[in-house]
Specification:
- By secondary structure, the chain is an alpha+beta fold.
- It folds into 2 domains: 63 residues; 78 residues, no CATH class.
- Helix content is 46%, strand content 22%.
- It contains 2 helices and 6 strands, in the order αββββαββ.
- The radius of gyration is 22 Å and the shape is elongated.
- The N and C termini lie close together (12 Å).
- 12% of the residues are buried.
């Protein structure tokens, strides 16, 4: 999120300078207006459109899903996402293929809450890469990064 805002601020600051150099004052004003328009559009996309698609995919999985109970669950720190994730391992009894489903990252270590709790994984029956791990038994939404 922070890098997203930095890139947008650079665009808003660089466009007027380029407009001023290339076309004078009127070019700088036009470039500033375009920069602010790009900032507003990008903010709307980030704040509303991307979460809407994510929620739509989850709702689609809720209505047309296959519930998998994983064989085992492992908590690990994911440095890429900057939080703790739960890896849910499942072996397909028909094919013998093992799948790993990863939860959203948690701000704090959820190991104590995971012990004794069986999580469920909702998957698309056709494409197992479209899934989400149901962590609602463990926490409120505020603990998830």
């Amino acid at each position: 999120m922070m890098t997203f805002l930095i890139i947008l601020l650079v665009i808003v600051l660089v466009l007027p300078v380029l407009g001023l150099l290339a076309f004078g004052i009127i070019g700088a004003v036009i470039a500033l207006i375009v920069g602010f328009f790009m900032l507003i559009v990008a903010s709307v996309i980030k704040a509303f459109i991307i979460p809407w698609f994510s929620n739509r995919d989850k709702m689609r999985l809720d209505s047309d899903h296959k519930l998998i109970i994983p064989d085992r669950q492992v908590v690990r720190f994911d440095s890429l996402n900057g939080g703790y994730v739960i890896d849910c391992y499942h072996t397909d009894p028909d094919t013998g293929r093992e799948f790993v489903f990863t939860s959203p990252p948690f701000a704090e270590d959820p190991t104590a809450r995971v012990n004794g709790t069986q999580l469920g994984v909702f998957v698309n029956p056709i494409d197992y890469s479209n899934y989400y791990v149901d962590v609602s038994k463990l926490t409120d939404k505020k603990d998830i990064i």
